[in-house]
Amino acid sequence: MTDDLATLQAETEAALAAAADLRALDAVRVGTLGKSGALTALLKGLGAVPAEQRKERGAAVNRLKATLEAAIEARRVALDAAALEARLAAERLDVTLPPRPFPPAGAEQGAIHPIARTIEEIVAIFGAMGFALAEGPDIEGDWYNFGALNIPDHHPARQDHDTFYVPAGPDGRRPVLRTHTSPVQIRTMLGQEPPIRVIVPGRTWRADHDATHSPMFHQVEGLVIDRGISLGHLKGCLVDFLRAFFGISDLPVRFRASYFPFTEPSMEVDIGWNRKTGELGKGGDWLEILGSGMVHPRVLANCGIDPREFQGFAFGMGIERITMLKHGIPDLRPFYESDVRWLRHYGTSPLSPATLAEGV
Ligand code: PHE
């Protein structure tokens, strides 16, 4: 091989070794084999070589061309493999990573607030019965909170609710801080076609404050709308829920006739307990725990549902109340005081989520 060919080979091989990625490699390839590449120039120059040397020179240049093509290809394969390796390393998900100690050593352990915990449990139990979760706004239109629920303007039930009003909107009606979760019944029925099965936990508001009442509290609403729904479905559903929630498989449950404007017939639901000891399930006393009933035909009609075709039941209960009963918490006020000693005592570890494995 002549000197110029040996030099070109050495230079190209050095440049290939130095090419750290595919772009650098391509620059070397173009500089060698491209239209104005060094080797292409040699091939073009063959015509000017004296005839007696041309054959030998042509063979040598073509050998060098094959050598450099092979070297470029080899480098490309190596760089491709390295790029893939780098990607695999960067995107690796190590599923064998051991769990981190929780909480980290020395840190304070947080706890799930009893209200949040009760909501999780309610959602787990009703979720297993096929209920979906629904939500509505805390500041509610008068029609949703009262009117559509068959509570007209001068109905005495409006007074019972000790409503917080918000300054009137353009329609002259004062929005309210919702006094119950029942307006979400209306929103759900307006928003979807039956069959409907929803559970609605949320904040509610009434101007009332003592050891068992807070101006802000929580309720959970339930609503089922379908063809052929009867009081039997309501009773079965609530008995199952109460027994699962309190973890007492033979908890006595009593349905007592009552009145709500938006259900007909209406029933208050009581559970058996011992008034003196506070023990649930035994003792012969009754404790009111929730309101329920068959959705009033007028409420169905207000939501564009034909009451001759669809029936349903609804219920609503206070979350604080059932939480206090379940855990023997005597006073409502500490629920909102954020006292970490209380939270540590009544809170639940975030590592024990509400599941149906607990016997629900
Ligand atoms: N909204 C009623 C209350 O706050 C409870 C209820 C809900 C009753 C649904 C019947 C049906 O007291």
From TrEMBL:
Task: List where in the cell it is found.
Answer: Cytoplasm
Q: Which cofactor does it need?
A: Mg(2+)
Cross-referenced Pfam families: Phe_tRNA-synt_N, tRNA-synt_2d
Q: Where does Mg(2+) bind?
A: 264
Gene3D superfamilies in the cross-refs: Bira Bifunctional Protein, Domain 2 (3.30.930.10)
GO cellular component annotations of the record? cytoplasm
Q: What is this protein called?
A: Phenylalanine--tRNA ligase alpha subunit
Q: Which organism is it from?
A: Teichococcus aestuarii
